[in-house]
Amino acid sequence: MTADVSSGALPCCALHPDAFAGATCQRCGSFVCGVCTTWVMGRMYCPACAVRPEVNYLEDFRLKLWGRRDASAWLVGLVTVVLVGLGLVALVAGTFGIALAWLASAGVGVAFFLGMRWARLGLLAVPLLAMLLTAPSLGAPALLFFVPLMVAVNVFRDTRSRLFFRLDVPERELHRLWDLRVNNPLARHALSLGVGSLFLPVLASLLSFFGVWWVLSVLFLGMAMLALILGVVALRRVDPEARPPIGRRWESLGAVGLALTALVLWGVLHWQRMVALFGGAVD
User: Fold this and answer.
1) 3-state secondary structure string across 46-109
2) 46 and 121 co-located in one domain
3) Which parts pass through the membrane (predicted)?
């Protein structure tokens, strides 16, 4: 025995009433057909929800940083001002070769600050050429240019810097940058405070003879309690199913654990001093 199902009983696409729906949007629940189905980071959405910032959060994050100067661009701009000053001083002193070198380097810095893509390679070339050209006259000290060369390499590879130059970056790298900057930052701050508070009890023991125990005590209690509070708040925020997802559960737990461990360690190392202090206050 079979039962016929009328076409009116089958769900239809919200945008195309003549097409049968094969799925529902994972955000709003609307029926979608094969044409309307839009996949964003492994989830199925309708066209309207797929473009929402909280759904396609990586694209929204990319657009916020696209073409905007980062810290490295401002640092290069500051160094460029110094190079221009050095070039003018050398020009007044009559050392035209050195002045030309300073001003040419400053030109690369200006281009980098303005977001010209060729300046990314120019930033690598400046310290490399400086090291090679000064090696015959300076000798070993010319290797000091290796430090700015390594800085330039890091800037060249940096995801944030590439977004400033409007260069496409892989989704994996973009997600790593988003995770570092946006994903539950309270957990990272709490973990840093927890690590710092863990060392203060030992530091207070080493520096107690300098009479700074009270200062370290106040600093320790502030850091430990702040790490504990921020860790608990960050832990309560964790929601992997949210869009965008909120993670860093282990960092939050680590911050809480470190803060509690630091409080116990402080009591173990300094209980005699505290008993004497508060005992004297009671007497």
Assistant:
1) CHHHHCCCCCCHHHHHHHHHCCCCCHHHHHHHHHHHHHHHHHHHHHHHCCHHHHHHHHHHHHHH
2) no
3) 71-92, 99-118, 138-156, 186-207, 213-238, 250-269
